[in-house]
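Re: that chain you flagged

S.,

Sorry for the slow reply, it's been a week of failed gels. I finally had a moment to sit down with the sequence you sent. For the record, here it is as I used it:
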Amino acid sequence: MSASPEGVTGGTVPAPVPAGASAPQRSSDQIRRDVELRRGELAGSVELLRRRVGELTDWRRHLREHRTEIVAGAAVAGFVVGGLIALRRRRG
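Prediction finished late last night. Pasting the structure tokens below so you have them in one place:
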């Protein structure tokens, strides 16, 4: 979104009004359109965020996509645990 001093048109955000300056006068219809535009943008952003969170928290999908790495990591962990157990038995 880009700033536009003449108001909200085509998804733009009005430019900030400098301190001491008066805001450009907008009609109640322009304000309503602006509110509806923002409401639509917010709904789209929330839906996009909801989908992204769903993708990131889908552990089954992560398992499918990273099966090789998970199996390799489990094998390494098994060898490490087995080695530690063997060392303890030798010492004890």
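What I noticed first: The first helix runs from residue 28 to 56.

Talk soon,
D.
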